[in-house]
Amino acid sequence: MKSNKQTKIILKPFLATLAVVFLFTACSENLSTSPDAIISNNEIQSQPSLATHSSPNVVEIIAKHEGADYIFELSADEIPSGWTTFRLINESHSTHFAYIAGVPQGAIDGAVEDEEELLDYWIQHVTNPFQFFMDTLIPDKELNYDNLPTKYADSFFPYWFEQALPNGGPGFVGGMRSTETTVYLEEGEYIVECYVKNAVGDFHSYLNMIELLTVTDEESGAVEPAYTSEVTVSSNGIEFDRHISAGEHTFKVTFEDQIVYDHLLGHDVHLIRMDKGTSVAEVGKWMNWMAPDGLVSSSSASLGPATFLGGVQTMTAGSHGYFHVELEPGRYAWVSEIPDPHSNQMLEVFNIPRGEAAGRGQRGRR
Ligand SMILES: [Cu+2]
User: Residues lining ligand 1 (ion), CB within 5 A?
Assistant: First the structure.
């Protein structure tokens, strides 16, 4: 699950909630070759495509279902540091994302101490407890007490969880689509996970859609992407250039601040195509992981609102990432994965008209 530097604030209400809980429970079109675009005198120039499959600064993440398991297959488990493009290729029919979190030293030390693989250790101390908590919110769901860690008698999560670093990653992407997001990665160990839920409320990460990525001290030398348009996300809402033209885009997404919402997490930003039949109310309602039917996307039940095209997952205040997408004329919305995003200016609908050349729309904020 996500955390951020303000997790002290997060965990206090979370643990208070859990205390109450315990009392009551007695216990994309395929963008794989999308050209990069640069800004030069307000003209868009096509460049050779983003780095290819074998380039060191591109990590492909294949999302797929295998029986009851939901899994990620990463093209590499160790990469150099620097600007890194994550290409999330969704080979399933349900919606997924790939959140990237820096693993704190305390977790690394704990895994060594317990002689466990780091990923197993993380799952045992973070993923499984979150699943237990989620299960308590779903009526009539059987609780698995094996998911509770036994090591921390006085707290639900280990002390190091609040030090996990939200480092962005590809946003929600609909079934059989792909999406690309570029973020800067320092040397370290990172969790790559999706915590969308299946039909019975199991997080995809709990069903194995979680991997470990090692970033070495070697520098890839990859350059920071150029961009065609900017999106700024803050506690005041999502701000963006409403004159967005059809065509190839790279959005620079800047996190001006970061706060904790009622679902105990921070904000991020995703792009959804508001297809016929997709309502603002439906999208907004889906965005709260704590709601029993929130964030559910399963090929055996509800797929969730269509059609997500990607975005940038939660990052710390002052950070930025890049989201690459090809847009056709139509109705779209930027939306953040927070409760009731519409009331927080975090669900913003806009239209892309027909007939304008890519990237030549007027610039400037609303
Ligand atoms: Cu998923």
Answer: 96, 194, 196, 204
Measured in Å, residue 179 CA sits from the centre of ligand 1 at: 14
Ligand 1 center from residue 241 Cα (angstroms) = 30
Q: What is the pLDDT of residue 19?
A: 36
CB distance 330 to 350 below 8 Å: no
What is the distance in A from the centroid of ligand 1 to the CA of 12? Answer: 27
- β-strand 210-219 against 78-90: which pairing, if any? parallel
Distance CA 142, CA 135 (A): 7
| Cα-based distances in Å from 279 to 29, 306, 344 | 21, 10, 17
pLDDT average, residue stretch 28-32: 31
Rounded distance from Cα 303 to ligand 1 centre (Å): 11
pLDDT tens column, 339-355: 999 999 999 999 999 87
Residue 2 banded pLDDT, cuts 50, 70, 90: low
Would you mind telling me the total number of residues written for the chain in this entry?
366
Helix (H) or strand (E) holding 238: strand 237-240
What is the helix (H) or strand (E) element at residue 343, kind and residue range?
A: none
Q: How far is the CA of 65 from the centre of ligand 1 (A)?
A: 9
Q: How much distance in Å is there from the Cα of 1 to the middle of ligand 1?
A: 12
Tens digits of residue pLDDT in 206-263: 999 999 999 999 999 999 999 999 999 999 999 999 999 999 999 999 999 999 998 9
Residue listed under structure tokens 């699950």: 1
Give the Å distance between the CA of 42 and the centre of ligand 1: 37
The amino acid at residue 37 is: A
